[in-house]
Amino acid sequence: MLDTLNQLEQQGLAELNSVADAAALEQWRITYLGSKGRLKGAMAGLKDVPREEKPAVGKRSNEVKRALESAFESRKATMGGGGGSSGPVIDMTEPGTAPTLGRRHIITRVREELCEVFARMGFAVASGPELEDDEHNFVKLNIPDSHPAREPIDNFYVAEQGNRERPRMLRSQTSTVQIRVLDQALREGWGPPVKVVAPGRVYRPDTVDATHMYMFHQIEGLYVDRRVTMADLKTTLFQFARAYFGEEAEIRLRPSFFPFTEPSAEFDMKIQLRPDQPPKWVELGGCGMVDPAVLEAVGCDPEAWTGFAFGFGIERIAMGRYNIPDIRMLFENDIRFLEQL
Ligand code: DAH
Fold it and tell me: How far apart are CA 171 and CA 174, in angstroms?
């Protein structure tokens, strides 16, 4: 019996060495390791072995079995596949890994959603440069030289070589686009009426905290036409809020001051940022009736035209809409956060 086993092992290993393709390998497996194979056949003889020899023969059978099996596995691996073709072994019954789908950043999506809501109310989309001059950022918006908002400490002015007529800066507000659009409309003769929203980045050297960032996004609105009134402004903003946040949205206008609007108001909304805190009033931005001085600055007759304007923070809107407690989460790009939105 021991001889038979030794012979089986030798022969098996030798034949395995000369196996040339996957089909021959499979044939070898059937011959030696299959359920009706030679090893099974030899092991069936174990029952006729005398009692005292049984342990030794049993042990040897197991050794031979293991030797043939492992030789088979390594031969299979070096042949690659063993399933008929070369290439890596693929188990078609595995569930597999789903591909990770990317998505646009939440700020991009909110920006598009906002443009979409305002488009339904007749607003076109406009844009302007992020690198601006102080004429568009301040002068034509009725913010005089002496105004504290122009302090270097509150703005990102750009150090430039050569003598530019006007200092340039990273714009601190999208209200710059009001001037650009009105200028362009008058120059090209297609307006007013002008009805646009302008989303984009703005920059301020603010100290970063849960609601402030040195770069953020605003969406500006401007509607100039004949006989536009404060009632139109209020209706537009309240309709926007209900369309975007739902019928239960709690909003309010609070009297305020901006150099480029008169009268001016702040637009607040009741927002619950954290589940463990009650909702509170959050300022989304400012609005008001375009100041006659602004219309005059672009050469638009304030006796013939009136308008309203507004400028909201897109991050604040996103935080309210998607219950995001901290503005920094929007910029850290932690994939675990972004994947939830
Ligand atoms: N530009 C203002 C800011 O950044 C917001 C603002 C207020 C925009 C009133 C407007 C407006 O268009 O009418 O704080």
Answer: 7
